[in-house]
Amino acid sequence: MCARYTCPVCGYDGLEEPTYYENFAGSNEICACCGFEFGVDDFDCDTFEHEGLTEREIVEESHRIWREKWINDHFELFDVSAFPKEKKNGRFLKEAGAIKQLNRIKKEGL
Length: 110
What we know:
Oligomer: single chain
Order of helices and strands: HEEH
Number of helices: 2
Low-confidence stretches: none
Strand content: under 5%
Strand order of the largest sheet: 1-2
Distance between the termini: 23 Å
Number of strands: 2
Shape: globular
Largest sheet: 2 strands, antiparallel
Number of domains: 1
């Protein structure tokens, strides 16, 4: 069994690669749960001004914004087929599963 990595946006623990490598170079993996693409959706996020921010600050703010959107969209799944039917309600992750994932972010300090 290969190692799995956790999405710092939604807490999904099924990523196949680390989200970032040295100096915040993104893996370009797309989270099957929230749809965030590491190395693209962070540095291309135009919702806030990047000037004067460190790469870490840009990544963290992008994650916060995307997480908020995912929550407001009622935990809509990016790849519905990646989740067993007992964990989803149509094209949405069940709330209990979403809360468990979001708590994982806090525990792992992501």
